[in-house]
């Protein structure tokens, strides 16, 4: 089987020749730059370049040598950008690690005077901060923190453009969707389709809960859901309207060339959902269903949802909304035991993740313990198809390279 055939078989609940493996096809089940740099040194790749293509999360884009070494089956459409030396610029992380970043981003990174960085919006406001001892950026500005007004909703694309992700993220969906830009992306996507056998994932997002929290603050949006539902509905309606407009243009241009479209909406916490199933059904289910149904209207791509935390109680409604693939499968959260998930939802969902615990085993375990955990997870999730292997969320900076090798080699073996 080719990688594309292997992923297709797994997602359609057929047993492929082996379980497909992902590293970086979905950005938030990838590897942070420091860990990647140590990994390539450990593997003896002297000509390797650690390219931080996602500056917010400080994630490295896996190079072709890494994809081949670990038999990776999926690639992010975004890897086809920033491929020439002119599009990348040398940079040093806070600990001195040498990397490259997209050339246009460095001008936005401003020293904070204490060994960290900050990012400013168009009006001079600080929108993102990365203190000295933090490897990623945290949000520092919420455009609608003072409340939802008709005027701000009318001009919501501008307010969203002032967010940290829109300023320095390099995923295709975070760029302005002009006709020229979409044509350029389509050319790249067509080239990847014709010249590689990888399954191709395109990041779109379509976030509702997350975008509302990015705009209102997390606690502000929770207060809206509980105490001002009219404002919450108006904001979510406007977000859905914008997502549907962008999705039609995005998939009209890219639909023939991609296999999977990645949506995102974190709905869970370590101890369960962020809100009750009744709240999800009222505020989110109808709108998610509109967005995910539209994917099938404009393409044959599979609907992939990145949704962190304990979302067991919401999974039946996610399936009802049209989710076909669930990631990162945070098996350490409440009620997210692998056996339960596979038994109750394995007929309807392809699980993409959950292959190794990034909160515990991958960081603190031995290679032998990691291999054993991977084996157990594959036996549970892989039976009958419906599974793509990757770890739970990102491989963090302090994960030893031998642990990364043990995990990916065990998955392949």
Polypeptide structure, described:
With 413 residues, the protein is α/β, with parallel strands linked by helices. It has a single domain, classed as TIM Barrel. It is built from 17 helices and 18 strands. The protein has helices at 3-11, 33-42, 64-69, 150-154, 156-161, 164-168, 179-195, 209-216, 218-227, 229-254, 277-283, 285-298, 315-321, 338-345, 361-364, 367-381, 401-412; strands spanning 31-32, 52-54, 59-60, 74-76, 88-92, 98-102, 110-111, 117-120, 126-130, 138-139, 199-205, 260-264, 268-269, 272-273, 302-306, 325-327, 350-352, 387-388. Strands 4-11-12-15-16-17-18 form a seven-stranded parallel beta sheet. A four-stranded antiparallel beta sheet has the order 7-8-9-10, with no helix packed on it. The mean pLDDT is 94.
Brief rundown of the structure:
It contains 17 helices and 18 strands. The chain is an alpha/beta fold and 413 residues long.
What is the tally of helical segments?
17
Average pLDDT: 94
User: What portion of residues belong to β-strands?
Assistant: 15-25%
Strand order of the largest sheet: 4-11-12-15-16-17-18
Q: Kindly state the number of beta strands.
A: 18
Distance between the first and last residues' Cα: 16 Å
Largest beta-sheet details: 7 strands, parallel
> Helix coverage percent of residues?
40-55%
Low-confidence stretches: none
- Category from helices, strands and their pairing: alpha/beta
> What is the CATH-assigned architecture?
Alpha-Beta Barrel
Number of self-contained structural domains: 1
Radius of gyration: 20 Å
Q: How is the CATH topology named?
A: TIM Barrel
Q: What is the approximate shape?
A: globular
CATH level 1 class label:
Alpha Beta
Looking at how many chains there are and whether they match, the oligomeric state comes to single chain
């Amino acid at each position: 089987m080719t990688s594309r055939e292997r992923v297709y078989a797994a997602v359609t609940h057929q047993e492929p020749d082996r379980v497909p493996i992902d590293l970086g096809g979905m950005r938030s089940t990838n590897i942070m730059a420091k860990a990647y740099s140590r990994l390539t040194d450990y593997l003896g790749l002297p000509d390797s370049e650690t390219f931080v293509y996602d500056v917010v999360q400080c994630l490295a884009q896996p190079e072709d040598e890494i994809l081949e070494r670990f038999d990776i089956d999926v690639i992010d459409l975004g890897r086809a950008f920033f491929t020439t030396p002119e599009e990348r610029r040398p940079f040093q992380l806070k600990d001195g690690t040498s990397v490259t970043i997209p050339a246009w981003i460095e001008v936005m990174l401003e020293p904070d005077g204490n060994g960290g960085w900050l990012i400013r919006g168009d009006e001079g406001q600080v929108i993102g901060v990365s203190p000295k001892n933090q490897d990623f950026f945290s949000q520092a500005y919420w455009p609608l923190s003072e409340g939802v007004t008709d005027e701000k909703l009318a001009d919501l694309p501008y307010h969203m453009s002032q967010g940290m992700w829109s300023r320095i993220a390099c995923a295709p969906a975070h760029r302005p969707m002009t006709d020229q830009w979409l044509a350029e992306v389509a050319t790249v996507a067509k080239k990847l389709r014709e010249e590689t056998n990888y399954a191709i994932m395109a990041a779109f997002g379509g976030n509702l809960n997350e975008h509302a929290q990015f705009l209102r603050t997390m606690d502000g949006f929770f207060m809206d859901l509980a105490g001002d539902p009219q404002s919450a509905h108006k904001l979510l309606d406007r977000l859905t309207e914008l997502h549907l407009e962008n999705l039609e243009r995005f998939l009209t241009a890219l639909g023939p060339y991609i296999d999977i479209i990645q949506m995102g909406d974190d709905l869970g916490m370590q101890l369960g959902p962020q809100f009750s199933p009744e709240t999800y059904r009222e505020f989110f289910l109808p709108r998610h269903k509109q967005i995910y149904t539209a994917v099938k209207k404009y393409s044959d791509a599979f609907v992939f949802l990145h949704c962190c935390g304990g979302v067991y109680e919401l999974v039946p409604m996610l399936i009802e909304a049209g989710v076909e693939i669930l990631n990162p499968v945070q098996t350490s959260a409440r009620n997210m035991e692998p056996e339960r998930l596979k038994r109750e939802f394995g007929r309807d969902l392809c699980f993409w993740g959950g292959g190794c615990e990034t909160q515990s085993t991958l960081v603190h375990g031995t290679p032998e313990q990691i291999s054993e955990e991977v084996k157990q997870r594959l036996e549970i999730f892989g039976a009958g198809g419906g599974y793509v292997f990757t770890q739970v969320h990102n491989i963090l900076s302090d994960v030893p390279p031998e642990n990364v090798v043990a995990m990916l080699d065990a998955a392949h073996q």
